[in-house]
Give the backbone structure.
Amino acid sequence: MQPINILGVGRTDYNPKPDISIPEMVHHAVQAALADAGLTMKDVNARVTASADLWDGLTASNVAITEVVGAVMQPEARVAGDGLLAACHGAMSILAGAYNVVLVVAHCKASMGDPHGITNWSYDPIFQQPLGLDDVATSALQASTLSLAPLRPCPIADGAAAIILSRPSSVPAPHLIGMGWALDEHYLGDRDLTDSPALREAARRAYTLADIDDPKRDITFVELSDQFDYQRKLWASVLFGKTSEVFETSEVSARGVPPFVAGLDRLIEVVLRLRKETGTALAHGCWGPCGQGQVVVVVRR
Amino acid sequence: MNNNGFVTAGVNLSFNYAAGEAASRFLIALRDEKKIWGTRCPACQRVLVPARSFCPRCFVDTGEWVEVEPAGTVSAFAPLSPLLPGEGPGVRVGLALIHLDGADTALAHFIGEADAPQIGLRVVAVFAESRSGHILDIAYFKPTET
Amino acid sequence: MKRVAVIGTGQTKHTKARDDVTQSELVREATTRALADAGITIHDVDAVVLSNMELFEGRALPEMWVGEGAGGYRKPVMKIATGGTSGTSACIAGYHQCASGLFDIVLVVGWEKHSEGATQTGMALTDPLWDRNVASGAVGNFALSISQYVAERGVTPQQAAKVAVKARRNAARNPYAHLQMDGITVEKVLESRMLADPIHLLDMCPQSDGACAVIYAAEDRAPKLCPRPAWVRAAVTRHDQPYIGDLDRRLVTMRTLRDAAREAYQQVGITEPLKEIDVAEIYEPVSYAELAWYEALGFCAEGEAGRLIDDGITEMNGELPVNPSGGVLSTNPVGASGVIRVAEAAMQVMGRAGDHQVPDARLALATGYGVYAWSDVIILSTG
Amino acid sequence: MTELLRVSHTMTLSWRYGTSWYFAEFIRALRDERRLLGLRCPVCRRVYLPPRPVCGNCYAELREWVEVKDSGTVRAFTIVHTPIIDPTSGQLRPTPYGMALIQLDGSDTTLNHYIAENDPNKLRIGMRARAVWREERRGTLSDIIHFTAMNNEQSDNEQ
């Protein structure tokens, strides 16, 4: 694929913000990204937002942020899933020739409601939801198959993240050069929870686009998403085999990054580091039960 | 409205999900016969439990209905902390994935009447006294007598 | 940057309640039909885009469960959700994904099972600080905007009823449509129960269970797979401010649809839409909206929409047939409704619309409508 | 034909919606002073009700508070006859009832609220209406019970 420029990044902190509205929170992240890119909203042709209605307690949850993302009388697509997926979609809409500059924004205020109870509604309603499954219970199931314990969930976090993508150019910004995403099966009992074929597939697609033959050799560093601390070890082993300590990752689970923002936050982390050093880096996002959805982006500078 | 900088609002809504023909037949067998059925994928030959109308991997209609054993092996286990509403203490102790004998996939369900369940434990289904055509017509799985 | 065409479509029979299938199985039914129509298998599909109004069924991340029904196993699956425009937005997203060169074949599926939710569940979670204080609902909100449109344009209840009659008569020739009312008349519409002045029951769309799928192929594959593919010529989105009270006489101005259509026409080189467009599938949740959309889409001058329906211009045998499928007024599984518009427009261009085919349709328009005034416009053609 | 089953679930969830400075101030003025506050856009000068951080038309930040009157002009109306769930109670609201989009004096947006009139022939676009308040206010739009026609079309200043 043609490389896509990452012109600017911005994010809020991820502390719980009980008194801050979603529009105001998103506004701060968008303003930060525009300032970082040295652009104004007039320069943006389209936006791709990422949010989840049940976490926001709002039907069509991007309605609340229409004005602060500059979408009035403008194009916007909204991905219901991880923000890194929204970045992939933004890059594709540029590759399609539809837009030159795309703003990608993800938000979630996990402190608003019951972020674990909500996840019960993501299991099929016939066979799994009646068991009261939630992300804590199913992650414990997954950890048991890996002989990993104890389980530490990501602290409750609120925040927004934004990036600005543009057409390929000679600007010496970090470039998005590969991306891939995939879903695993839904029924937990259909899956091999000690593995993540969806992550394998997402990475394979990203590597193919980025012309990476040997990820252990070609990738300088990675930033992984994990909603529970055991997950980082699993994702790292799926991506690079058991001995993956050469890859540094900053712990999302320890710090707390909201769901749906985490993947985009990982991409921002990658971009910030690639502004200081050259290399090829991988940003990872996941969403759904035991990481049923997986997304990988490769960035180079 | 309060002075904490936020407004609390909630919902209390009911949803009624169609089980469809395949899952209905599976649930009716639990209710009327205390039997557990799977369906075999004609492409990959796996027996899927609970029964499905199509194989998610091969995207083909499943054909043959296959009765599987009510007994199987625990392949994942997590202790339950907050029990389901109405559940008496000490009966259901955890959630598990259970590979029933004759099935190629595992069933997610409860483990009960067990002290310290571990992966590899052999368990058997305990059916609820009163059954309504629901996955909880199996009350839980308990360790088999050795 | 590749050209992209629709090479296959598939939909379920839309109806009040599909108890015989789960949401996942419903989606699989539409997917399987679209694959057959395109003459491909699920293994040929490179990526999947889904559309659904998840809170109507109370779901979180419904693609987790339902993605399997779209053959999403270990494939790139993305769910797009923008309210009522979800279906057309997903079609535009799928088009962009295919045009990007990353995927040769992209499947878009939209679905809704209103029968699984309580009435108005999706409307329960509006802005708690504002909209949630009043019981207006979609019907009440439309009625308010219609009062402005009627006052300024002078359209009559009879003219609106004619739109409702046209939709249901067209639907009677579409085997997948939900409402089949061959014997409907203007009188029956006007005698039907008043929901909110001036909207009668038969002026309004139903709530349906249903799914619809569209399959795109990129330029190197489409001509080999389909003798007469429906090429995407334009795909434009416009969103608007979040509250109904922000919008200046929304049905009268409908600035999003007006501007999206203007840009789409410019991209395709359309200067006289009524003459040049052969068929339109537009998202009209209520009869009066179709009249307002005629003006916003430039089918007629402002104030002329009533004449358009009176003169039969938009009937099946008119100059520009609008909603040969019966439209949203006959079939409304919301997450699928926008996909149905694109599928039906594509079917017309592909010559596969069966009993509701417009003869030799070559240039087709599809629109999406959502939230208070969000619009999508998509144009398809034979070349 | 197989007997077809359904599986029921009840969703009982609640959320804490952050008000931020702008809705907090709107709520305070509404509850404590029975005043309605809007925000004026520094670019297009439109006064927005409800308040918000950004004018979407201009992409400009809003900071200037403007008091909006509790009386205004009806810009749209309907009589609702079909039962609609009242989101404040979760119950169906008894029908029929009037609704209107009312442009409050001093505001450039309209407010979607109830109007105490069930006969459409007695409503018209352009008529004047004023708010009828509850005795005890909680700081929500429901502190206004409904709007009522101002038959004598008195001045904007009438309280």
Summary: The first strand of chain B starts at residue 6 and ends at 18. Chain B has one domain: 20-143.
